[in-house]
């Protein structure tokens, strides 16, 4: 996971998160953080053969995971001293994704108490929309605080 933090205050937090992501599902997928702020998260995925299904398009599970990762990171940036987990993920596959590079954008659109709601989309690097989604995330305990 490479990072481009928007503020210097996030740099250490994102660096720690990068270390913790090594060897995890995030690391296996291979997405890269292009932008990360409390307003928006942008990820990039260079599509590899293992991301494809048997008919040669990006597997729906990969697209759903990209949305989950981007929206989850957006919640973590808003709540850096709390743990958030996905409680609901809705994904609409609007077009097959055949691109070599995918761009995932996510933002938190609402938060209240221990619940956060996000939207996200997956596009080709050329701007073709392939997948849209919404997610609900919950603050959980015990808290494992990142510095």
UniProtKB/TrEMBL annotation:
Transmembrane segments annotated in the record for this chain: none
Source species: Paenibacillus agilis
Residues annotated as domain Thioesterase: 56-129
Keywords: Hydrolase
A GO molecular-function annotation: fatty acyl-CoA hydrolase activity
Entry-linked PANTHER family: ACYL-COENZYME A THIOESTERASE 13 (PTHR21660:SF1), THIOESTERASE SUPERFAMILY MEMBER-RELATED (PTHR21660)
Family per similarity comment: Belongs to the thioesterase PaaI family.
Record-given protein name: PaaI family thioesterase
Top-rank taxon: Bacteria
